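input
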Amino acid sequence: MICSIVPPYMLRRIAAQNEPALRAVARAAKESLLHIKDLQAIRATPVPAAPPSARQAKPGPPKRTVFDADGSETLPGRVVRKEGAPPVGDAAADEAYDALGGTHRLYADIFGRDSIDDAGLALDATVHYGKLYDNAFWDGSQMVFGDGDGQIFQRFTKSVSVIGHELAHGVTQYTANLAYRNQAGALNESMSDVFGVLVEQYLKKETAAQATWLIGEGLFTDQVQGEALRSMKAPGTAYDDDVLGKDPQPDSMDTYVRTSADNGGVHINSGIPNRAFYVVASELGGNAWEAPGQIWYGTLTSGALPVACTFGKFAKTTVATAEELFGAGSAEHDAVLKAWETVKVKV
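output
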């Protein structure tokens, strides 16, 4: 499944602009919308998790390759940096390389996972994709980054959380394989936001209290009134801009958005489980990649999540995972219960 970082509702807002100064931006947004729609129509074949025999006793080193599409839409492009090679002086290529390594490190160090598939999958990324391309996406086998339009978006490698987010779609693909529609799709997006911020926090050694909890911080140019694509701490507050409109994410089931757009609101309603994870991390304090991350990762890899998982089923499974890892009545178990109560998801 093609999973992109910029929500279609945001691209539609940009595409609808008709001011002369925004014509190039509007055209770029339209092209990005059509491109993602075409890619999703192809649909990547689901990839099963690696068999136990393919897994190593402990995670191996990363195997990174960064390609340059040189403004084309041909993948993967020409090789510009391979594992162990020095920086090449291209900001996008070097940012992609570093963030691929940081993502590999989080999964290896904290979760004992050997790359995205838990069997040493090579991490490939293509930069400089398309002309003024307003998106980044996971295509089922590799990462792809556009350079942005220069008016609304800057290059998509600027945000570590974006790279961590997209690679996490691969982890979900190889584990729970959550459907990319309705609540399961929102959970798919939320899992990527969770592990995207964990990659960023782990690299920066930020505690839950120190972190911004923003997804895509630094992507917007200074012409945009906004901090990021999404806020996990306060869904619905990431931006409020004349062109983009106001961040539409709900922060609880009280404002759940029922829509057929965006595959049933996968980028919108992800705000609800996002906030739940933030509440757990905030309640427990310290490093979010420790107990909160272990609970969410344990849930994702438990085998208990159906492909068409609902928020309620996911919540119950996180509670069960917290009990299994830390015990009933533990601070971790109680924090998970409080989180789902906060966002009005029944457990």
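quick obs: The radius of gyration is 19 Å.
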